Amino acid sequence: MKPEEQDLSPRLSFLQYSQENIYSGEKGKAGLFLSEYFLLAYNKENKNGILYASWDRGDFGIKFDIHLTQTGEVEYASAIYDIYCLPDIRPNAKLSISKIKIESFVGSPEEKLSKYFKHLGTELKAPAFPKKVPTGWCSWYYYYTKIDQKIILDNLAKVRELNLPVEFFQIDDGYQKEIGDWLVPNEKFPGGMRILADEIKRVGLKPGIWLAPFLVRKKSEFFRKYPEAILKDEKGKPVPAIYQPLWGLDATYALDITHPTSLAYLEKVFSTIVKEWGYPYLKLDFLFAGLLPGETYKKNLSPQARYMEAMQMIRKVVGKNTFLLGCGAPILPSVGFFDGMRISCDVAPFWHPEKLRTFLKDRNALCTETALINDLTRASMHRNLWLNDPDCLLVRKKRNKMTEAQTKLMASVMAVSGGMLLVSDDLTKLEMERLQLLKKAFQLNSECQGYTPVPLGIFEEDFPPALYNPSGYLGIWNSTEQTKTVQVPLPPGLKPKEPFLDFWTGTRIDCSLSEKKDLLSVELPAFGSAVISV
Q: Which one of 44, 106, 275, 452 has the fewest CB atoms closer than 10 angstroms to its CB?
């Protein structure tokens, strides 16, 4: 963000739960910014920057508050711990808080960010990651909650018929009877979920399944039977976690994840799904619900500490060989528990935010443009903290408002990132030319996935213009609605050689290098993209 911009909270209060730290209050004034866990300020004119960062991990959340002048200078900065969220603080009690690192630098902000993520992964003991990352199919972005057994089996058959190079086949939201009743499939899945897992394995793929373990709805059996295990406010009312109209017109609530009943239930859910149903890949969504304010059973645990304690239990139950993908999760407390992590908001079958969300001044409104910005700015988390999940790729024509150029740009960013790559289309209706785009994306991703990429120009534009993958690929794009000459600052030490050939078309791209060979320029049409070998 630029000094003159305003850091605003969503107008609708329920959006704050899923879009920002509920304990933080955005001031909404020009030059005042709040950032969770780390903050990088950079002046692109003099190439001076400063990193404010949590250097390890304690029991409390931390955020950095900064005020920039109109010229971009730091007037003041402060670190704020979420200690006030802990209701039981005794005199002389020892608090586990993270250390703070303040580091000024000159040069590449992208390099500084990548080194910070590498330090954090080492400090928090992130596991060693396999060279191969998950690829697959996901039901969500075409069917949403309207899935059934036949839809799943039809797409499964099509994966094999099309000979797609994927490993996982993931069933998303829509199989469960109610949010919170994860072990009770609805009437659209008469055979149950174990049979589907067996069928997925039979064709040589690994079954995956979605759940939101910390959420519960009033209609669920769990909510009715165990009201004492629901997170409540000071007045004894259930704490709302999210409003999702696909689930109903009322709120969805949070579990008290410190309550013995909740913990026993979660242990049963995860043990059943992994050990009895046979799913080795779990997508855990809306995990922020584990940190919401409320009256908890264990009053001596901070929100961050209770979240980490619950995740430790879940990891122990599912075992180290189960792939855990986090989604809607706090970044720092999640390192070390997850194999993969969603690093963006949801993609969508449209590029720009919907008009209603724009009217509500919701700068975090989900859309593909915003998701890709997140994917680029957080690209170097990949293989440092976890395997990045940039969210699903959509390549279809039907039920997709994105243009062909926007779809290709999306594929370029996701493939060059080297992160997880799951497609979320109706494969039974996928057009032939879009199938070819998909297969090329999988091919490019397979060459890039073993490396940590570096975004380029993160302080030049809101949508960084390029991404370099050390496998030897440079993705360049024009995210605007008019033809533009894109200038890319190259990483130190990179010496690209002509001719420049586009991976997608095999044709030559007319690029020019600066005299010092540290800046590459190329003219691209509106939403144009190219991936060149360097």
A: 106
